[in-house]
Amino acid sequence: MPGKSEHFVPQHYLRQFCFNNTEQVVIALVAPFRFVGPGSIKGQCQEDYFYGENKAWDNLLTECEKVIAPVLVEVCNKRQVNPSQLVTIQMMAVILHHRTRKAVEAAKVTPRYVVTKIIEGAIKRGELPPCPDGDEGKWDFKGVPGFMIHQAGYCLMEMQTLCCKLLQCPTGSCFITSDNPVVILNQFCIGVDPHRNFTGFAKSGFQLLLPISPNLCLFFYDTKIYKVGSRQSELVEISKQDVEIINSLEIQSADKCLYFHDLKLEQEVWQLVSRYAHLRVCIQNGLRVIPIGDNKQFLHSRAPSVKLPRVWSFCRGRKHVKYQPGDLRKPEWTALGKEFMDDVERNPTGEDIFTRLKKFHKKIVDDFDQSQKTSAV
Question: pTM above the 0.90 mark?
Answer without folding.
Answer: no
